[in-house]
Amino acid sequence: MIGVLVMAYGAAQDLDDLPRYYTHIRHGRMPSPAQLEDLRTRYLAIGGDSPLYRITKSQAEALEQVLNSEAPNTYRVYLGLKHAPPFIEDGVRNMVEDGVDQAVGLVLAPHYSVMSVGGYLEEAKQAVQRYQASLPWQGIQSWHLEPSFIAAVSQRVATSLALFDNDNVMVIFSAHSLPQRILATGDPYPKQLRDTGEAVAEYMALPHYTFSWQSAGRTDEPWMGPDILEKIENLQREGWNQQLVCPVGFVSDHLEILYDLDIQAQKHANVLGVHLERTPSFNSDLTFIQVLADVVRKALNR
């Protein structure tokens, strides 16, 4: 049996879970009342909770079905979240208890950074060593140029471009910002985002595209920019009144999509007179699940 540990960020289960969730993100340090209220306000704006857990669980279940459709009873997919139960360690423990013969870790983020995907994989690796050091383990670092992924992103860009009045649209490929200090270490994250965008642009002969960062953490240190709000405004000054955000660094609807883009960025664009759209998230779309299956199978074949 091959165990596949699907990993994602996790979200608060409800408003009452926000203090625990925010404290876990801050490595055990309680947020200030103002910080907690800010997060609560954003959760309320999207309906009171994030759909991320439900979507991630659905993605994992669908991936198991797709993988086993070609190799019946070969795969079992487990869920491990970074900041909410079931945690990454829980997923590894469940794999070990079920007696899997081989394990592969897949983070639901296509681009690698030592601060993001690298952290998930290291945590999972350490858990494997604690529970069963002899278990063959492989962590997938990135899948930002997986051909089926590029095709799926391109399809969503093409569909969304049809929402505009003409072809004079600037496409903005975005991903979650990270602290600027990763640039000094040669972290591949910024280049991988650019590689994905350029691959999509080449695939569909996209004439106008650019890159931006979003959802920077609320910390004192500088984060990579330009931020999406700044990018929208700068493009408007250059005459781009039709803009399409493709948050290619994200694969599910959650706070960074439903609030940061659909509410905050949309409000900013409306003030500027910009027609702003975004490509729909993959969530549990079968085309995307097939992408994940491709990534897993190729990793095991290597």
Short description:
The chain is an alpha/beta fold and 302 residues long. Helices cover 46% and strands 15% of the residues. The protein folds into 2 domains: 160 residues, Rossmann fold (3-Layer(aba) Sandwich); 132 residues, 3-Layer(aba) Sandwich (Rossmann fold).
Please provide a written account of the structure.
This protein is α/β, with parallel strands linked by helices. The protein folds into 2 domains: about 1-145 and about 285-300, Rossmann fold; about 145-280, Rossmann fold, CATH 3.40.50.1400. About 45% of the residues lie in helices and about 15% in strands. The chain has helices at about 20-25, 35-45, 50-70, 90-100, 115-130, 145-160, 190-205, 230-235, 255-260, 260-270, 285-300; strands at about 1-10, 75-80, 100-105, 135-140, 170-175, 210-215, 240-245, 275-280. The strands form 2 sheets. A 4-stranded parallel β-sheet has the order 2-1-3-4, with helices on both faces. Strands 6-5-7-8 form a 4-stranded parallel β-sheet, sandwiched between helices. It starts with a strand and ends with a helix.
